Amino acid sequence: GAGVSQSPRYKVTKRGQDVALRCDPISGHVSLYWYRQALGQGPEFLTYFNYEAQQDKSGLPNDRFSAERPEGSISTLTIQRTEQRDSAMYRCASSLEVASSGNTIYFGEGSWLTVV
Amino acid sequence: AQSVSQHNHHVILSEAASLELGCNYSYGGTVNLFWYVQYPGQHLQLLLKYFSGDPLVKGIKGFEAEFIKSKFSFNLRKPSVQWSDTAEYFCAVTGHGNNRLAFGKGNQVVVIP
Question: How far apart are CA B112 and CA B19, in angstroms?
Answer without folding.
Answer: 13
